[in-house]
Specification:
Polyketide_trans_af380; hydrolase; single chain; eight-stranded mixed β-sheet; Rossmann fold; globular; Alpha/beta hydrolase; 8 strands; hydrolase activity; 11 helices; alpha/beta
C-alpha cells in the first residue's frame, strides 16, 4: 500500500477481525525516515471520524504520525462473530489499543510510540500503558481517568442503571438480537431543548458535539449514531486506570478544564500518580471544549507535541 502525507485508510488485526483506521502522516512524509507515532484513543463512541479526525491532522502538522481507529464493533470496524455492534468492554478496548501499538510497530518508518487519549480514551490509553511499555509516554485530555467518583456518586441511580443493563443483557442472550434501548443518553432525533430537559449532566456541552445539530453528530460523521447497546452500564461503570495509576511507569501529561464537571476524574487520578508527570489545567475550557473548539484544541495539541518531543 502506498502511503502519503495526510490521511490514509488502513486496517489492522485485533481479536481476529480487521479494525478500520486512519493513519495521518506529516507533510513531506518520507518512508525512509523515522517518525514519532501516536496511538489515539477517543471518547465514548470510539469512532475515527470524530476526535481522531480533529486531533490526527493537528498532530501530523506537528510532525507526528497519528493512528485513529474505530474500536471493535464501532463505526467501520466489525463486531466479533455472533456479537452485536456497539458491544464494547473496557478489556477489549485495551486489547484493541495493544494491537494498534503492534500494528505501528510493524511500520518501518515508526520510531517511538506514544499514547494520546481524550475523555474515555484517556482511561483506555492509561490502562493499556500499565503493562505495555512499548508506549513510551502518555497524554490525556479531559480524561475520564478516575471515574468512580463521577460515575458512582449516587448508588441508587447506579443500581437502577445496572438493573436495566442486566435486563437488556438477558433479553439479548435469549432473543439473539441487539437491544439499543439504553435510556439515559442522547438520541439521534433529539433537539437541543429536548436533551437539556432530560437533566443529563453536561447536556448543553454534550449536544454541542454529539447532537444532530452539533459539530460531529449523526449525519455529519459517517457511521456515527448516538445509539448505545442496552447493557452499556455493565461495561462503562468498570473503570480500570485509576486503580493502577501508581503502577504507570511512563511519563504522563494530564490536561483538563478546572471548571469542567469531570475535573475530579483528572485531579483524583493525578493524586494517585507516582511517576514523572505534568499537569495543565485551564479555567476557561469545559470538558467538551477540548474535543473541537479551535483554541482549546491548539493549546492541547501544542502541549502534547512539546511533551512528546522532550
Amino acid at each position: 500500500m502506498k502511503l502519503q502525507a495526510g490521511k490514509n485508510s488502513v486496517h489492522f488485526t485485533s481479536f481476529g477481525v480487521q479494525l478500520a483506521g486512519d493513519l495521518y502522516l506529516p507533510e513531506g512524509f518520507d518512508p525512509s525516515k523515522k517518525y514519532k507515532a501516536i496511538v489515539g484513543a477517543s471518547p465514548f463512541p470510539q469512532v475515527k471520524g470524530q476526535i481522531p479526525a480533529i486531533y490526527g491532522p493537528e498532530m501530523a502538522a506537528r510532525g507526528f504520525i497519528y493512528l485513529g481507529f474505530d474500536y471493535l464493533g464501532m463505526g467501520d470496524s466489525p463486531a466479533l462473530p455472533g456479537e452485536f455492534k456497539k458491544t464494547r468492554y473496557m478489556f477489549r478496548l485495551i486489547e484493541n489499543t495493544w494491537d494498534a501499538v503492534s500494528y505501528l510497530g510493524t511500520l518501518p518508518f515508526v520510531g517511538e510510540i506514544y499514547g494520546l487519549g481524550v475523555c474515555q480514551g484517556g482511561s483506555i490509553i492509561a490502562s493499556a500503558a500499565v503493562t505495555d511499555h512499548r508506549i513510551k509516554k502518555i497524554a490525556t485530555v479531559s480524561g475520564m481517568m478516575a471515574a468512580d467518583a463521577f460515575q458512582w456518586g449516587n448508588k441508587d441511580i447506579v443500581n437502577m442503571m445496572i438493573a436495566g443493563a442486566n435486563t437488556s443483557k438477558q433479553k439479548m442472550y435469549e432473543t439473539e438480537e441487539a437491544d439499543y434501548t439504553w435510556p439515559i443518553v442522547l438520541q439521534d432525533h433529539m433537539t437541543r431543548e429536548e436533551f437539556v430537559a432530560t437533566g443529563t449532566p453536561m447536556a448543553e456541552d454534550t449536544y454541542n458535539f454529539y447532537g444532530k445539530d452539533g459539530v460531529a453528530g449523526p449525519g455529519k460523521v459517517e457511521h456515527f449514531t448516538c445509539e448505545h447497546i442496552g447493557d452499556q452500564a455493565m461495561q462503562s461503570l468498570i473503570s480500570i486506570a485509576e486503580h493502577y495509576a501508581d503502577k504507570i511507569a511512563q511519563p504522563t501529561l494530564v490536561i483538563y478544564g478546572k471548571n469542567a464537571s469531570t475535573a475530579i476524574c483528572s485531579t483524583a487520578f493525578i493524586d494517585k500518580l507516582a511517576n514523572e508527570h505534568e499537569v495543565l489545567a485551564f479555567d476557561k475550557f469545559s470538558h467538551v471544549d477540548f474535543y473541537w473548539k479551535p483554541e482549546a484544541v491548539k493549546i492541547s495539541t501544542d502541549a502534547v507535541a512539546d511533551f512528546f518531543n522532550k
